[in-house]
Structures are given as structure tokens and as C-alpha cells.
């Protein structure tokens, strides 16, 4: 039977070519642009507050470091613009570089010792029973909350060369040469005492921070490692240390910043019987230039130098934190 071709459209269909369907535009969500801007609007007041609270002092220091600003300017005389003369004088001053070397060494050594001791205390707290750990935490908080001047009064009495507890204990232990020994007279023993004081005041913060990180390690991970035969040292090295590495980086960064600009402990120990010119760190050196000699222009230049050293010392840790975030 011959086949028949249909030369007409099926019933109910329109004659002619069927137009291609057009893609309708996606409906625009109302308020999408405003919702994207909302986080920035919420952060804006905080950014403005930070710029006002931190930007103005830093800007004032930068401008003052380019001027001659002394006692005359404090009584109304206009400051004289000297450009980079203050910085040139600092570069050629051997006293400043001695202070910088002492400050950086003191900062690095003290920060390392603080993190090491604080980490050991945190591991100890993690291994103690509940009530012993609570008593240790209360003791750390009390030591941390003690005002610096009050704590320094006790420490100065301990190392006092006439009636100090340290010399008395050493004499009773058979060290007769300790009688009347002035621990603050020599720069080396001065910085040993200062390091002990700074570490003692900083360990509570570091210990509690690292302990908080240790508590976030899952117990099932530790139990699995124990079933595999991992010793305590191996668990500490291969499980705890990598998991609390971000906390260690943060506390190390903070300690470097704090110990570089330490002032109160050094100044009070100097007033207790030390030669300031031989035991100055950057904080006390700025105080000596500004308040002592009235040279606020040079003191501001040293403050800018402290800022640059702080950025240089903390740059590695900041990069590490940014890498961990990404």
C-alpha cells in the first residue's frame, strides 16, 4: 500500500513554524544589593572607632617624629619641621642600637620561655583531676589579676640586697657570698630578674589559652592513639601539638609584641637600684628621651622604630595565621 505523506499540520496546532522558546530573565531578588552591603555597614562603626582611637595617635607620632618638639613647644612655641633629621640622628647613635639589640634578645628569649612554661602548665592541668585543676586555675587567675605595681613591690622586696628573701634563703642554704648581693646592680643579673618577673606575669594567660585549645581535642582521637600504642610523648607531639598549633601561634605573637614594649617592670626595677643607661630597653629608652630629656621628636622617632620592629618580628606569625585561615 503506498504510503501517504501528511502535508498538513496535526489538528489543534497553529500553522507555520513554531517559534523557539525564549528564556525568561531570572527574577531579581528584592533587596539583594542591600543585603550584600549590610555586613559592611555593620562593621563601619567599629572601623571608624578603631581609626579614631588608633589612627590619630599613630599619625601624631609620625608627624612629631619629623619635627623638633621639646620643652619650648610644650609651652606654646611652634614646632620646627626638621624632616628626617631625627631618624638620621638615631641611625648614627650607638646607644640606640645597643638598646635595640637588648630589647630584641630580651623579647625573643622571654617569649620563648613563657610559651614553653605556659605549655607545660597547660599539659599539667589537662592531666590533673578536676579539683586540683580548679585550684591551679584559680591560682593562675589570681597571679594574672594582680596589679603590676603591687606585684613588682613584692618582687623588689624578694631581690632586695639588704633584707630580701632571696639573699636570706641563699645564705641559709650555705651560699655565704649571697649576703648583701645586689641582683639589680649588674646588667646580666638585672635582666635575669626582669625575665623571671615578666615570665611569671605572662604564664597564666599562656597556660589558660593553651589549655583551652587542649580541651578541644576529641577524646576519641586520644583513645584511638592509645589503642595503637602511642606513648604520652608521642600523643603530645603528633596529636596535641598540631591541633593546638593555631593557639600557640597566637600566644607567641602576642608575647613577642608585649615583651618588646615592656616598660613598667623594667622601670620599677631600675628605680630599685640599677643603672638606667645600662639596662634600658626600648620602652624605658623612649620614656627617658621624652619625659626625661624633653626631646619628644626623637622619642616619637624611636616609637616609630618600635612599630617597625614589631611588624618585622610578627610578620612570620601573621603570615602563618593567614595561611591557616585560607
TrEMBL record:
<keyword id="KW-1003">Cell membrane</keyword>
<dbReference type="GO" id="GO:0005886">
    <property type="term" value="C:plasma membrane"/>
</dbReference>
<feature type="transmembrane region" description="Helical">
    <location>
        <begin position="134"/>
        <end position="158"/>
    </location>
</feature>
<dbReference type="Pfam" id="PF00528">
    <property type="entry name" value="BPD_transp_1"/>
</dbReference>
<feature type="transmembrane region" description="Helical">
    <location>
        <begin position="103"/>
        <end position="127"/>
    </location>
</feature>
<feature type="transmembrane region" description="Helical">
    <location>
        <begin position="238"/>
        <end position="258"/>
    </location>
</feature>
<dbReference type="InterPro" id="IPR000515">
    <property type="entry name" value="MetI-like"/>
</dbReference>
<keyword id="KW-0812">Transmembrane</keyword>
<dbReference type="GO" id="GO:0055085">
    <property type="term" value="P:transmembrane transport"/>
</dbReference>
<keyword id="KW-0472">Membrane</keyword>
<feature type="compositionally biased region" description="Basic and acidic residues">
    <location>
        <begin position="1"/>
        <end position="10"/>
    </location>
</feature>
<feature type="compositionally biased region" description="Low complexity">
    <location>
        <begin position="11"/>
        <end position="30"/>
    </location>
</feature>
<feature type="transmembrane region" description="Helical">
    <location>
        <begin position="190"/>
        <end position="217"/>
    </location>
</feature>
<feature type="transmembrane region" description="Helical">
    <location>
        <begin position="296"/>
        <end position="318"/>
    </location>
</feature>
<keyword id="KW-1133">Transmembrane helix</keyword>
<comment type="similarity">
    <text>Belongs to the binding-protein-dependent transport system permease family.</text>
</comment>
<keyword id="KW-0813">Transport</keyword>
<feature type="region of interest" description="Disordered">
    <location>
        <begin position="1"/>
        <end position="33"/>
    </location>
</feature>
<protein>
    <submittedName>
        <fullName>Sugar ABC transporter permease</fullName>
    </submittedName>
</protein>
<dbReference type="InterPro" id="IPR050809">
    <property type="entry name" value="UgpAE/MalFG_permease"/>
</dbReference>
<feature type="transmembrane region" description="Helical">
    <location>
        <begin position="38"/>
        <end position="58"/>
    </location>
</feature>
<feature type="domain" description="ABC transmembrane type-1">
    <location>
        <begin position="100"/>
        <end position="317"/>
    </location>
</feature>
<dbReference type="InterPro" id="IPR035906">
    <property type="entry name" value="MetI-like_sf"/>
</dbReference>
Amino acid at each position: 500500500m503506498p504510503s501517504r505523506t501528511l502535508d498538513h499540520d496535526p489538528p489543534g496546532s497553529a500553522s507555520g513554524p513554531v517559534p523557539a522558546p525564549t528564556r525568561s530573565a531570572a527574577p531579581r531578588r528584592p533587596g539583594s544589593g542591600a543585603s550584600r552591603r549590610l555586613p559592611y555597614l555593620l562593621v563601619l562603626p567599629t572601623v571608624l572607632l578603631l581609626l579614631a582611637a588608633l589612627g590619630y595617635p599613630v599619625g601624631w607620632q609620625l608627624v612629631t617624629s619629623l619635627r623638633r618638639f621639646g620643652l619650648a613647644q610644650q609651652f606654646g612655641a611652634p614646632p620646627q619641621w626638621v624632616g628626617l633629621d631625627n631618624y638620621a640622628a638615631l641611625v648614627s647613635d650607638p646607644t640606640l642600637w645597643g638598646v635595640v639589640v637588648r630589647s630584641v634578645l630580651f623579647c625573643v628569649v622571654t617569649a620563648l620561655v613563657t610559651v614553653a612554661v605556659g605549655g607545660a602548665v597547660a599539659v599539667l592541668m589537662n592531666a590533673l583531676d578536676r579539683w586540683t585543676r580548679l585550684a591551679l586555675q584559680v591560682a593562675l587567675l589570681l597571679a594574672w589579676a594582680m596589679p603590676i605595681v603591687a606585684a613588682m613591690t613584692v618582687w623588689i622586696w624578694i631581690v632586695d640586697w639588704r633584707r630580701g628573701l632571696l639573699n636570706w634563703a641563699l645564705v641559709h642554704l650555705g651560699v655565704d657570698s649571697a649576703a648583701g648581693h645586689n641582683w639589680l646592680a649588674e646588667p646580666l643579673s638585672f635582666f635575669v630578674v626582669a625575665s623571671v618577673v615578666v615570665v611569671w606575669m605572662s604564664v597564666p594567660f599562656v597556660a589558660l589559652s593553651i589549655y583551652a585549645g587542649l580541651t578541644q581535642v576529641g577524646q576519641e582521637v586520644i583513645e584511638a592513639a592509645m589503642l595503637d600504642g602511642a606513648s604520652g610523648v608521642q600523643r603530645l607531639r603528633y596529636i596535641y601539638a598540631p591541633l593546638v598549633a593555631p593557639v600557640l601561634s597566637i600566644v607567641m605573637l602576642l608575647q613577642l609584641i608585649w615583651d618588646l614594649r615592656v616598660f613598667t617592670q623594667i622601670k620599677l626595677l631600675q628605680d630599685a637600684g640599677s643603672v638606667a643607661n645600662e639596662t634600658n630597653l626600648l620602652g624605658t629608652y623612649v620614656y627617658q628621651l621624652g619625659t626625661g630629656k624633653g626631646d619628644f621628636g626623637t622619642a616619637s622617632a624611636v616609637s616609630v622604630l618600635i612599630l617597625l620592629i614589631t611588624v618585622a618580628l610578627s610578620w612570620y606569625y601573621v603570615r602563618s595565621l593567614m595561611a591557616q585561615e585560607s
